[in-house]
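Q: Structure for this?
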Amino acid sequence: MQINRTPWHFDHIFPLPVSVQGADDQKWQEVLLQYVRPVSKGATLTLEGAPWDAMICVVDGWLSLSKSLDTGHVQIIDFAMQGDIVGPASADGVTSAVTVEALTDGTAAIIPPAVWHCLQTQLPGLASLVQATEAAIRARRAERALRLGKGSAEMRVAHALLEFGVRLNAPFGQVYHIPMTQQTLGDFLGLSSVHICRTTRRLARSGILEVTDHMDIRVLQPAELAKIAGTDPEALRREILPMQT
Amino acid sequence: MQINRTPWHFDHIFPLPVSVQGADDQKWQEVLLQYVRPVSKGATLTLEGAPWDAMICVVDGWLSLSKSLDTGHVQIIDFAMQGDIVGPASADGVTSAVTVEALTDGTAAIIPPAVWHCLQTQLPGLASLVQATEAAIRARRAERALRLGKGSAEMRVAHALLEFGVRLNAPFGQVYHIPMTQQTLGDFLGLSSVHICRTTRRLARSGILEVTDHMDIRVLQPAELAKIAGTDPEALRREILPMQT
DNA sequence: CGTCTCATTGATCCGCCTCAATAGCTGTGG
DNA sequence: CCACAGCTATTGAGGCGGATCAATGAGACG
């Protein structure tokens, strides 16, 4: 289901939680408001290989970016959430490299390339934001690629749960929800849903975390989990959370 | 070995093969010349976690970007070659997310963040180049992540060899060289060197390609190889080769 | 000629996939 | 209210792909 492109009216979202430093912010917020629209759970924004040239700025909710093989196997490349600015277009600039789907109801601004190009040159503050966001995206994708290639199932799961916690800004010990099934998490980590189940159960049984009610996560032993994930939560935060300069 | 940062003198490289469209090109070439320097095979430009904030523009030769686990396992995130512009910095902007090493002798420009920021705003042509390059990088990394997560060893090897051929612009049937050992290719594909060996031998025995003299590749049956890789060479070219608009 | 690195091949093992069955939960209609 | 369907989670059994360990070639180089 391709979402339509008519402007949407939002009176109730002020200000949008994706902001730019300095004087450029007002203009940026205006543009965002102009292109922002609701996205409903399960909706497909674009398909791998389909025509697409716009930028997507996530205001609220979760999106998944995925690719698939003709065997039917799906690999989720990344999740995008509040504040992420993603360009699904591939090198030719007019084709989507990934399928973008909504994991939850949410809102996103879809900004045409002409407007985007214009903004980039006119708003230096936006350029900084974009660079910071892109560095964060690269860093977290690299971190995952490392574990996808060389890590055990346990390490992948531990790292993913820590990453979600960091990105959601959830304090340790607090419950946070990730809006996906074990199947989806498996598609993200290159594992079968069955093995996701076994792995999370094992972590739960050893008292490191609790998983309740369809993916409500509570980390009980952050240090243990971090050790399994092969990372340090503080370092991870610095590495993958965009920081505007 | 950290390379030094004193300017280097090049009289013999004109023009640099990393060019920008339009009137900005001259300025860009000047800046490149100012920061370009030779890199020798085996040299380490930066280490994962070390201080780093510069951009790297590859003029000639191959670089590898890698991360490693404390088990000693290494995952190569990407190779950078002629024309690639890579930012190894993570989200904090001052730490390298990856280790950057030279696989061959070559030349690269290392551009300080202040200069880079300045260039971005002053040279719109450069901004376009960067966006195109980044889209290409994202697309090829996504393509690999898919196979890293869901593909067989055979598919990963086939895809990597096709990707190298495309990036090197090697016509089908022609020999091209990839400057790495089977171990390095394994670190790239998430496979052991032993399994790289078995897989390439199997492909060679079935007449799909030839591998001679330490990674001189010759694809004999491009269609077969593409089928195994789960891709179409033309589509791959469009998707992962940067095209300036 | 000895050493070093890299490629190749065999043997064995194990982590994860696949298939399959059951259980729990939610919503729907009679 | 229960019966049922549909989806997700859980657990077991068996198989396979790729890792690991180990030994032998094969060049390259001093």
